[in-house]
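FW: tagging you since you asked about this chain on Friday. Here's the raw sequence from the shared folder, copied in full. Didn't touch anything.
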Amino acid sequence: MDGLMTEAMIRADSLSKRYGAVEALKEASFVVNRGEIVGFLGPNGAGKTTTMKILTGYISPTSGRAEVAGHDVETDSVEARRAIGYLPEHTPLYTEMLVSEYLEYVAEMRGYKGAEAKKRIKKVVEETDLGAKLGAEIRALSKGYRQRVGLAQALVHEPPILILDEPLSGLDPNQAAGVRDLIRALGRERTVILSTHNLAEVQVTCQRVLIIAGGRLVADDTPEGLTASRGRPRLLVTMKREPSFDASAFEARLRALSAVENVRAIGLDDPGEIAFELTSASGADARAEVFHAAVESRGVLLGLERRGGDLEDVFRSLTTEASKERAS
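HL: got it, structure written out here
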C-alpha cells in the first residue's frame, strides 16, 4: 500500500513557457503522488493557469517536460488526457438540459454507450450525490449542485487524476462544505490538484501546497510545514465585555506593546466577550505584556491562547519576495 501511495501520477520537470518576450513559467519542477490532494496557489499572472494548461494538454511548454500517469503530455497527449478529469472554474454546462441528459451526452462524447454508459453514469451520480436531481434542469440547480454536475462530468471516464480550478468559487458556506467533503472523498482514490485563491480551504482540505509566484515555484510543503517554518505565531486575547471596559483603549494599549506588530479585533458569538488577534513579526512571546495590559486596563481576561502561523501570512511573504526579485 505504501508503494502505491508514493507512485508519481504527475511529474513536471523544468517546465518553462514563453509568450513572446514574456516568460510566464520558469523551470517549474514538482511531483504529485497517487492519493494526494494538493493545493496549487498563486496570485494572478503568477504562472498557475499556464501550468494547468500544460498539464491538461491545452498548450505545450517552451522547454522542459511533463508526465501525467506515466504519459508524456506532448508525445502521448491522448493517453495523458484520458487520465485527467478537469473541472474548469466556469464549467461549460448545457443548462437547458436535464442532469440525466447532460451526463448521457458526456458519456457518449467519451465513447460510452448502452450498458457501459449507464454503469458509469450510475457510479458518478452516487459519488456526487446527484440522485435526487437527475430529472431537474441544470439551470434550476443551485451553484453547489451545478458544481456537483461539473464534477460528475469530470468523473465519467474514471480518471485517476482530477484537476479542479476554483471549485468552491461563489458557493455559500453550506454549499462549500458539501463540495469540500466531496473532494476529500474523491481524493481517497484519486490524485487531486486543487487550484484556488481560498487559503483557508487549502489549509483544511489539502495535504500539500504548491505556491507559484513570478513564474517560479517558490514553495512545496505541507500546510503545517509551511506555517511552522514561515508563518508568524498569533495570540488570541479574549476579554469580558463590561460597561467599565473600554475596548478601543485596550486595543490601542495592545498596539503599543513592544512585542506586537499587528492587532485585529474579532467578533464572537457571545455578546459578552470580545477578542483580539495579535501577531508579531519576530515571533516574540507577548503573553506577559498582554497580561499586564489587561490588568492595567482593569478588564477581565478570559483567555490567552497561542496559535500557529497562518497560511495567508506565508502566501503573502513568498509572493511578495518573488515580486521584489522579479522587479530587481
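FW: The CA atoms of residues 85 and 162 lie 5 Å apart.
HL: agreed, and Residues 1-5 have pLDDT under 50 and may be disordered.
FW: great, closing this out.
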